[in-house]
Write a structure and sequence with these properties.
It is a single chain. This protein is of the alpha/beta class. Helices cover 33% and strands 22% of the residues. It contains 13 helices and 14 strands. The longest helix is centred in the N-terminal third of the chain and has 25 residues.
């Protein structure tokens, strides 16, 4: 035991000399002919092995097997996953915080919901046919005038509506009215949060209007914090209300809402500049249907091994690792974490790296499109996001590996960070959508087949992991974490990006849009 400790202390001392001492000799730019961040990155990548990352996945699989086959928020499987990660980090010397977050543990309706037009016409809409309650809507009974929010009527041939997606959509909204919002290209959660911030007393989201997007359907959006009743209606109902000037409706939801508590696992290096924080995150929870090994045991395991190996290295910037709870039901862990930060604490976070599904069996290497060079979907990320994307591109380019862009579509935990102007980036290997022929030519695998055929299913176990993708992407995670732990050169200072802040526009969820 004593010999082991002495060797570890000697290793730490040698690393400190290798990384820090050259600064005094050769200046901050170089060490042994290489920039110091390059030295640090090479050392950490060498230490982070795909084999060790896979061992953490074995542990997550064993946890799921011992707890009903899954690891969702609120389950014994999640609690055991949390404890596994936290204990590993504590033994490695990290300061670990278990941050409590809330989620909906149980929701039910006592009586059918009510949606009635009171004026200028009297009309009662039918639950289940004309509209459904958004789960988990709080109870509420409100009669007020309806006000449309940035509607696209008639609808375009393809989904395009951005109704309610941005706080600016609610300019001129009269507080106390019921917000009438059209389904479209951003998550429902965004619409709900923005409507609440604008003072809406209730929310009616209606389907967008294209073929296949006309009828209401039951949806769990995981969001209850608006505290107001909310329903999802057919396109016909929404179009009728939108075309009726001064329409006043009664909206009633009678529900039981029971909250539970889970924990984010937050660990940060003991050293490093606390005014310059680099955050690295992955969601730890899975879905009830399966063990969640690719989604997102893979990202969780990769950043865990990176953190464990980094504990042996000195760092210049403080590195904060996060394993988020309840991502699958609305990004609740990351959203509540960001919401708990003071403005000063937010300003100290220079960037956020997100790793959600990094070992899909029919994988593509997808880098979040920080500069919007793909010109699809959401706009570019906050200033600094383009530099993060470029840094990751350089890693894969040096290895002769292909990569493609992926949109900031709001489906993972970067959402709450970019919503407040913190630059973000990361790697994603694909979920339920199909691999393209061009991607099959670039990465191998099968075109016309989902990147992950077991996405959100019972078969998302150890056999659902592509070991090649896991290994190379774990190296990429180690490389980017190491570089930013040593220098954030090229990332704009937070003071220079204050104008980029928005209000909740980018937060989202895995749920449908």
């Amino acid at each position: 035991m004593r010999i082991h400790r002495r060797r570890r202390a000697a290793l730490a001392g040698a690393l400190a000399v290798a990384l820090v001492a050259p600064m005094a000799v050769a200046g901050p730019a170089e060490a042994r002919g290489h920039p110091l961040d390059e030295v640090f990155a090479r050392l950490l990548v060498k230490k982070v092995s795909g084999k060790n990352v896979h061992e953490h996945l074995r542990a997550f699989q064993a946890i799921a097997d011992a707890n009903g086959g899954n690891r969702p928020a609120g389950s014994p499987g999640y609690d055991a996953s949390r404890d596994y990660v936290a204990n590993k980090l504590r033994r490695a010397g990290y300061k670990v915080q278990l941050q409590p977050i809330n989620f909906v543990q149980d929701w039910s309706e006592n009586t059918p919901p009510v949606l009635e037009q009171r004026s200028p016409n009297a009309k009662t809409y039918t639950p289940g046919t004309d509209f459904v309650t958004f789960e988990p809507s709080p109870s509420g009974d409100v009669t007020a005038e309806v006000q449309g929010v940035d509607l696209t009527l008639p609808p375009t041939p393809e989904p395009s509506s951005t109704s309610g997606c941005e706080a600016a959509d609610f300019e001129g909204f009269v507080a106390g009215r019921i917000a009438l919002i059209q389904r479209g290209t951003c998550p429902f959660v965004n619409k709900v949060q923005n409507a609440k911030a604008a003072g809406a007393s209730g929310i009616i989201v209606f389907n967008e209007g294209q073929p296949g997007r006309t009828d209401p359907s039951p949806l769990d959006i995981g969001e209850w914090r608006a505290g107001i009743p909310m329903v999802f209606s057919s396109f016909a109902v929404g179009d009728e209300l939108a075309s009726t000037p001064g329409a006043t409706v009664r909206l009633k939801v009678d529900s039981n809402l029971v909250l539970g508590t889970n924990h984010n696992v937050i660990a940060e290096t003991r050293g490093g500049d606390s005014r310059n924080v680099v955050m690295v995150g992955a969601h730890l929870d899975g879905v009830p249907e399966g063990p969640g090994i690719n989604d997102n045991g893979s990202g969780s395991a990769a950043i865990l091994e990176t953190a464990l190996q980094m504990s042996k290295f000195p760092v210049r910037n403080k590195v904060r690792f996060a394993w988020w709870a309840a991502e699958e039901i609305g990004l609740l862990g990351s959203d509540q974490y960001v919401g708990s930060l003071s403005q000063t604490q937010r300003d100290r976070i220079r960037l956020y790296l997100n790793f959600d599904m990094v070992a899909s069996p029919n994988y593509a290497i997808k880098l979040y499109d920080g500069d919007d060079s793909d010109a699809t979907g959401s706009p570019a990320g906050p200033p600094g996001s383009a530099q993060i994307e470029a840094q990751l591109e350089r890693f894969y380019d040096r290895r002769g590996l292909g990569h493609v862009g992926t949109d900031f579509d709001g489906r993972s935990d970067y959402g709450p960070f970019i919503a407040i102007g913190i630059p973000a980036g990361g790697v994603f290997t694909g979920a339920e959508t199909f691999k393209t022929p061009a991607e099959a030519a670039l990465f191998g695998g099968t075109a016309g087949v989902a990147y992950d055929v077991c996405y959100h299913q019972a078969c998302d176990g150890l056999a659902n992991v592509n070991r090649t993708a896991l290994d190379v992407n774990s190296d990429a995670i180690a490389d980017s974490t190491a570089r930013y732990a040593f220098t954030t050169k090229g990332i704009p200072s937070r003071k220079s990006t204050l104008a980029a802040r928005t209000t909740g526009a980018a937060a989202g969820t895995h749920a449908a849009r």
